[in-house]
Amino acid sequence: MTYPTDISPTDISRRRLLGLSLGLGAAAALGLAGCGGSDQPTASTGNGNGGKDYTGPKVQLNLWNGFTGGDGDIFKKLVDQFNGEHANIAISVATYKWEDYYAKLPGAVSSGNGPDVAVMHIDMLATFAARRVIQPIDDVASALGLSEADFATTVWKGGLYQGKRYGIPLDMHPVGLYYNKALLQKAGLDPNKPPQNRADLEAALAELKKAGIQGFWVSPFQFTGGMTAYSLVYQFGGALYNADATKATFNSDQAVEAVTWLTGLISAGHSPTNVGQDADYLALKSGKNAFNVNGIWQVNDLKKSPDVQWGVAPLPQIGTKKAVWANSHNFTIVQQRNVEQNKVSGAKVFINWLSQHSLDWAAGGQVPARNSVRDDPKFKDLAEMNTLAAELPDAAFPPAAPGIGDVTKLFYDAVNEAVLGKKQPKQALDDGVAKADKLLEDNRKKYGS
Q1: What pTM value is reported for the model?
Q2: 199 and 317 in contact (C-beta within 8 Å)?
Q3: Are residues 186 and 227 in the same domain?
Q4: Is residue 376 in some structural domain?
């Protein structure tokens, strides 16, 4: 889920489509009859040592990704470096907008024209694994000696589906709290001490209000009000789903309390009503909004605006525990009609290599998933990235259930209704859960799980 770092109107519109791959679960189910339906996928067999090295004949590998912003340039440079260091492996990169990429991939695999390697968001792994678009890669982890100890626990576990590993994590991208230092100073607050908890934030908002500043604009859209609400549900002790993702639970008492707190910022005068898409972030940049929950991908954009005095911090703990919305890019190996083991072996070498070189990838606006890379002094020098890396243990990923992105969209729809005042929070969430439970049942039939 990498987001363009430039902020043109075109890219603002694009970001609406680049969320949890929402609405694409159904697309993933199309064109997959030739991929084996709901049968369990099986790992490929053949020679190879799980990615330690490759000594076979030269192979040409196709890689698909959705890095359409500045991060795409960084990714391509890394691929070029890999190609230069491996005479017998050549990687060709094809880049699509994420929504097009996920829609195209199933049909391409079904027709035998899919890529060899694919970058995939963590919340899409289960969907494509269930439909045999991607294959298990447990042998990569075992051969390289990789385990949970090598990665952030939340990200590592997110790559599993039905006990098999389908993704090797590259990064994590959370939301954080951006703050306008000039506005804090105007309200008599310390511009270098952002709020860390509910009391701090509410006290700061009160002072900002006295200074005539609406300090926390609440967006009704997934970007970023929905992500804020998502984080708060988990902070208040709730969850969007039960343990096995058979029922939606985002209308629990904790979830209602979380969304009620968020919408209360509007009624208390800390936010305008009916905030437009991305208006919360643009208001932060223009000196109208003091606090904005937004993704790590905005760091590089703000660095392009030297006149803006800003900072970023981990999300304040508003509820009873720390939690934060996040997503992660994972490397996967795509199923093929005719498996060429040399290609599979070469793909594993590439995945391992790029995971080890993810410090360079961090410059694109990501937190490396690999512990050794985050411990590198050079990563510590990336101040803002390092600050948000502290949120890794608190990442609240969706469960590994096929089609879960489509269901999560119903939560964002409910938040939209509550923020816009169309329904009270409890009613909006109750209505959303009723729809979500029906969709979860439909997904179990569709995906055979």
Answers
A1: 0.89
A2: no
A3: yes
A4: no
